Amino acid sequence: MKTGIVDYNMGNLSSVKNAFLKYGIEVQVEGDANSLKEFDKLILPGVGAFGDAMEHLKERGLDEAVKEFAKSGKPLLGICLGMQLLFDKSEEFGSHLGLGLVPGEVRFFDKSKFQKRLKIPHMGWNKLFKQKNSPLLKGLEESFYLYFVHSYHAVCDDRYAIGKTFYGYEFASAVQKENVYGFQPHPEKSHNNGLKIIENFIKEV
Questions:
Q1: Identified catalytic residue from 80, 122, 150, 153
Q2: 191 is catalytic
Q3: Is the entire prediction scored with pTM above 0.85?
């Protein structure tokens, strides 16, 4: 089983790689678009702005390579910004097209819906509530804590939301469309619960 981490110069690559190494799983950081098809599973991490991330992907031809990988039916996991890139578009600092692998868009938190004064970005520990069964959530409680850092969130049809989180209002924090998965929180920073998600990606997907 060969697992790759997409390197487009905007990801927390070392922490993601180290999380897999805890299970004795060797993962390869790869920035060559032509090499992505050689992997059995692929992780798309990301930290930063949506528009910049898409530009970095396009500059290396990685946007089309990731799309082709997803079309092959092999598992793809987007983490944090990597999850947001899976959607059709984002309103972060303008309007930007995403990879279009999961129908929906990425929006800034709507403070008008907050029932109390909450800070943006949404940062720290918060609960993910399971919405439906998914191999990535196997063995986890119906609700469990994960670590979040983000100012924008996904808006999508409930059929794609496998997990939701409440911060001012409810939003999709984990998604799945067939072989494409996404997590807004950072599994690699979420201790045992996050490591369980990583273990599930290795063993169950």
A1: 80
A2: no
A3: yes
